[in-house]
Amino acid sequence: MTNINEEYNRKLVTADEAVKCVKDGDWVDYGQAVSFPTALDEALAKRVGELKDVNIRSGITIREVRAIEEDPEGKSFTLNLFHCSGIDRKYMAQGRAFFQPMLFRDCGSYYYKGYAPVNVAMLTMSKMDEYGNFSYGLSNCVTQAIVDAADILIVEENDTMPFIYGMETDHINIRDVDMVVRGDTPVGTLPKPTASDTDKKIAENLFPYLHDGMTLQLGIGGTPNALGSLIAESDLKDLGMHTELMSDGYLDLYKAGKITNKNKKLHRGKGVFSTCTGTRELYDFLDHNIDIVSAPMYYVNKPETIASMDDFVSINGCIAVDLYGQVCSESAGTRQISGTGGQLDFVTGAYRSEGGGSFLTMHSTFTDKKGGLHSNIKPLFSGDIITTPRTQAQNVVTEYGVAGLIGRTTWQRTEGLINIAHPAVRDELIAAAEKQGIWKKSNKR
After folding, report:
1. How buried is residue 52: exposed, middle or buried, by Cβ count under 10 Å (0-12/13-18/19+)?
2. Dihedrals φ, ψ of 331, to 5°?
3. pLDDT by residue (tens digit) across 21-64?
4. CA within 20 to 30 Å of 269's CA: 89, 219, 398, 438, which one?
């Protein structure tokens, strides 16, 4: 006990002292989501003008990056992103951040294979326990890969980061840390998404496809939130959780007693997640909760892991789909909105699950700033980034219904997708389909 405390005190430094190790040209890794190191970022920002060409790597950033805010001309720092939040989109629009395409199941391997160098890792972790261990908390994700790749590891210890039990790679000991900094700012939270009337209708269309005992993967946003509320109020029972990102939608299901994990063939009795963002209530629920474990993203998102569980249902959002069944879930044209993340991982795994399946949800239309109505079902993409190829998109859901795509010909896909498009654009889409040679004269109108 005494040796642990002595080592802790020897490695404890101020944030300003810690960031002195950063050199020109370094890659500094902030990890993913809630692992964001607030105190260290603020200290690094003070070195604007002193440092040159430092690359910061992050993902799903949940608060402003001070190093970027204090360097509007990008002379010292550039932000590089594996996945984008609203804050990240702002920086990309300003030309101060750039996207790094990836599949979440492979993200850790980029570090191990040398494609993602880490000179300095700055990561928020939980308060050290009596044995000298820091829990990775809400972001198991690719944290171990970052730690293993780092030349220097700085832990930002934060009492508000929950202690999460993990299957593996869930903590690090003080003996393996280079420096420790105390973080006093509460870890970042996100408000619970509000479900619109359209989200609720999409959820209602999905509901008949759900059943007792299924293992559920939910994305984030209004539709999963609406679906969570529907399930919480339903007669469904004994659901399981296996998800890359845990959000407040799952909290509602746990509180309603709907998730028991008792029917899971894999990790029976345990809910499994890889990273988490949400409300403080969700974080408190996870703290020292033996019913739930974290696991690295390479395992959680591995299609073989997902496929090994029967009745696995995956539900994620998308932005647009074309009449060929190609799905865009990450960009508006060439403007990056989010990222590939784990959507393709779960689409692939859920299809292989006995009794399972995947659903990609979206609003049928969007309204531009001038009030113009535009369809999210398009004749064909032009510049939009394809997240899920047409060969793997299984079901697309809008407020007008569900279109099954797997095994369907081009004309069948077209018919199904037009049937769930907004009525105001269906004739226009039919005309485009006829021109593109993917509409049969006998198709329904």
Report:
1. exposed
2. -145, 160
3. 999 999 999 999 999 999 999 999 999 999 999 999 999 999 99
4. 219
What share of residues in the chain are helix, strand, coil (percent, to 5)?
30, 25, 45
- In the chain, where the domains are located: 2-183, 197-436
Whole-angstrom Cα distance, residue 253 to residue 262? 14
Packing angle of the helix pair 426-436, 410-419 (nearest 10 deg): 170
Nearest to 413, CA basis, from 400, 394, 435, 432: 394
Residue 324 confidence (pLDDT) above 90: yes
**Tokens coding 228:** 């969570």
Cα torsion 140, 145, 148, 153: sign = negative
Cα Rg of the chain (Å, integer): 23
CATH topology of domain 2-183: Glutaconate Coenzyme A-transferase (3.40.1080)
Give the residue from 109, 99, 191, 98 showing the smallest Cα distance to 144. Answer: 109
42, 156, 157, 244: which one is catalytic? 244
CATH of domain 197-436: 3.40.1080.20
Return the exposure string of 109-135: e unless at least 16 CB atoms fall within 10 Å of the residue's CB, then b: ebbeeeebebbbbbbbbbebeeebbbb
pLDDT of residue 445: 58
Question: Measured on CA atoms in the order 107, 113, 116, 118, is the torsion positive or negative?
Answer: positive
Is it true that 2-183 and 197-436 share their CATH fold? Answer: yes
Q: Is the pTM of this model over 0.90?
A: yes
Cα 436 to Cα 378: distance, rounded to the nearest angstrom: 12
Token readout for 97 is: 């951040």
Task: Characterize the bridge pairing of strands 133-135 and 271-276.
Answer: unpaired
DSSP assignment of 242-293 equals EEEEE-HHHHHHHHTT-B--TT-SSSTT-EEEEEE---HHHHHHHTT-TTEE
Specify the residue for token string 């394809």: 386
